[in-house]
Amino acid sequence: MILPTKHIRADRSLLGVGADILPILNEPKTISRIWEEFRSRRARHPNMAPITYSWFVLALDLLYLLNAVDYEGGRLQRVPTS
Amino acid sequence: MRTGEPESKEDMDKAQRIFFRLHIENAVLKADGNAFQVLFEDLMEKLHGGVFERVRPYGNLGDRKCDGYLRPSKTVFQCYAPREMQLKPLLTKMSEDFHGAKKHWDDRMECWRFVHNDPAGLPADAVQMLQDLEKENPGIDVKQIPPSDLIDTFLKISAIKLSDHFGPVPSMGMLENLSFEELQPVLRHIAKQKPADNPPLNAPSPEKLEHNGLSDAAAEYLSLGRKWERLVERYFAQHPEPDLGDRIAEGFRQRYASLKDMELSSDDIFSDLQAYANGKARSDAKHEAAVMAVISYFFERCDIFEDAVQSRGGAV
């Protein structure tokens, strides 16, 4: 799930989806706003198939576990890299 | 085996031939006892029409040691498909049945055929007995019909008549038009299954266990299905649930593992996985085509049948 498998392409693996989410976090945003922006970015690329909301949330969980994002005051933001 | 009127060879295309071959092979190899005799009679009737006569036991007269009679060649057939082939009962049966048939049919019998479904063949003593019977009875042609010959013979039946018996099968034209619409119900069904449940199969006979490796019919089927792999791949690539392919693969792997634990032959495992993917007793041709594409897709990625691939040197 996290990494690409025989049946999951890189851009659909959780790591790949996480990599697509990070550029959206140029400022702290609510989850629903991130989801909307993520969906429209993906829709602009014909090769990128849609994914479910639950898969998107799993990708957020992964980013949080990797300490790449933080959740504060109802908004998700990038953790600055030292 | 001399036959009646030959059926047209152009009657079925490559795909139909592959599917029918698999159906016939499954039916011939899996049938036991009376079921085998009924199958033989049904298909012989479809092949020869009225010149093949079924023979029914009549009260205390029995069936006159005959499981079917072919008039043009004056052939008496005897079917034998026990769950376990054992030498002594086999030899006894052969001798009793032959001599019984000779007594009852007299000059109406010019050929005697012993029909069985053991893919490993008859033991040497039985083969020799057949030769001895022929030598001792000049004027009567005595032979066995092994399952491979039976399957080849039944493939001469027309596509329409085989469809009557086995249900419709996909044609090449139908396969060309395979789309997501056909894949969806198959994949949805498989995704819902609980593969860890014990598959409902009877324990196979020890002799059949020796017949390992996928049959040519199954290998041909998987080869044909390979062409539609990309379609299944695209289906998963475009499905909103990215892990659907992984989940279904895991389902197949678990099912395969539990079948392997039962020490079944590769062919028995293959036919169970087909039934598992199929989900219905009799499906339409489009559904069968989709099942073939799905099974080939997972076979290619070695989610199932890694042993079979290795035993054939990695190439199918």
- Name the helicity range of chain B: 55-70%
Strands side by side in the biggest sheet of chain B: 1-2-3-4-5
**Order of secondary-structure elements of chain B:** HHEEEHEHEHHHHHHHHHHH
Q: In terms of quaternary structure, what is this? A: heterodimer
Order of helices and strands of chain A: HHHEE
Low-confidence stretches of chain B: 1-8, 196-212, 307-316
The outline of chain B comes out as: elongated
Question: What kind of sheet is the major sheet of chain A?
Answer: 2 strands, antiparallel
Q: Radius of gyration of chain A, Cα only, in angstroms? A: 12 Å
Name its key features:
heterodimer, A: mainly alpha, 2 strands, globular, B: 316 residues, alpha/beta, 7% strand, disordered N terminus, disordered C terminus
Question: Would you spell out the secondary-structure blueprint of this structure?
Answer:
The complex is a heterodimer of chains A (82) and B (316).
Chain A: H1 14-21, H2 31-44, H3 53-65, E1 69-72, E2 75-78
Antiparallel strand pairs in A: 1-2
Chain B: H1 14-30, H2 33-48, E1 52-53, E2 69-70, E3 75-80, H3 87-105, E4 111-116, H4 124-136, E5 141-145, H5 147-154, H6 159-166, H7 172-176, H8 180-192, H9 206-209, H10 216-226, H11 229-238, H12 244-261, H13 266-278, H14 285-300, H15 306-311
Parallel strand pairs in B: 3-4, 4-5
Antiparallel strand pairs in B: 1-2, 2-3
How would you sum up this structure in a few lines?
The complex is a heterodimer of chains A (82) and B (316). Chain A has 82 residues and is mainly alpha-helical.
